[in-house]
Amino acid sequence: MSGKWRIGKLFRFEATRELSGRRDGHSFTAEIVLASEALTGPGFVADFGELAPVKKHIDAVLDHRMLNDVVPDPSDEGIAEHLRGWARDHLPAAVSSVLQDVRIRTGRTMSPPAGTAVDFGATHWLEGLPPGHQCGHHHGHTYRVFLPASGPEWPAPVNLPPSFADYLTSGLDGQVLNDVFAFNPTCEHLAEHFAKWLAERDIAGIDEEVLTVRVSETESTWGEHEGRPA
Ligand SMILES: Nc1nc2c(c(=O)[nH]1)N=C([C@H](O)[C@H](O)COP(=O)(O)OP(=O)(O)OP(=O)(O)O)CN2
């Protein structure tokens, strides 16, 4: 399959700032996006665990702080710029080299509109992670699958084709994904598989040239595949 993979991890922090003479407090979300046109052998852009230092930095420097005291520009773009620079300087080279973006938003997480996402519960374990990594053990997720219309931007999901929604719920809910699939079930590989599933079927409204499929394992992580299946 050709195309591109992206993964994202979200970090929340609570803070206040003064912009244009007005003090405002928010729940902030920082989203770190990594992108690559190839996966590592076991199927990762990079392990989400490689982003743990970002959480430590956010907790130490931004969480429950007056942002004007800690970053030169406390606007959303200024905070993103601070985190981009920090990530470039402190993450391992294999991770910083695939850093695509850092985005900041304020407010609570929104639920996707009805009909645009399917959740299913399933078990998996992952090969290719460091010894002792929690995700090497059998564990489960409430997976969420959707088709973000705008690619790497904050996703505006489109309605899921009913046959695809049915495949996800009747085919995968309650399953052990390692038994169902011949591949290591990372969210990158799952997104690629779902893109292929959609492209192989003649489904109205699905343009596989630009199709993006996003698979979210947890509230704070997602992986997606964008582009035409080979
Ligand atoms: N690139 C990928 N990395 C990881 C994947 C994956 O599919 N692609 N999957 C996992 C595990 O399945 C894990 O359960 C999810 O990642 P994790 O960072 O542990 O997610 P949490 O939201 O539970 O993170 P916390 O920071 O512990 O809250 C691992 N890596």
UniProtKB/TrEMBL annotation:
| Family (UniProt) | Belongs to the PTPS family. QueD subfamily.
Q: In which pathway does it act?
A: Purine metabolism; 7-cyano-7-deazaguanine biosynthesis
Kindly list the GO molecular function terms attached to this UniProt entry.
Answer: 6-carboxytetrahydropterin synthase activity; metal ion binding
State the UniProt keywords alphabetically: Lyase, Metal-binding, Zinc
EC primary class: lyase
Name the SUPFAM superfamilies on file: Tetrahydrobiopterin biosynthesis enzymes-like
Q: Which Pfam families match?
A: PTPS
Q: What is this protein called?
A: 6-carboxy-5,6,7,8-tetrahydropterin synthase
- Needs which cofactor? Zn(2+)
Q: Which domain of life is it from?
A: Bacteria
Renumbered to this chain, the signal peptide range is none
> What is the reaction catalyzed?
7,8-dihydroneopterin 3'-triphosphate + H2O = 6-carboxy-5,6,7,8-tetrahydropterin + triphosphate + acetaldehyde + 2 H(+)
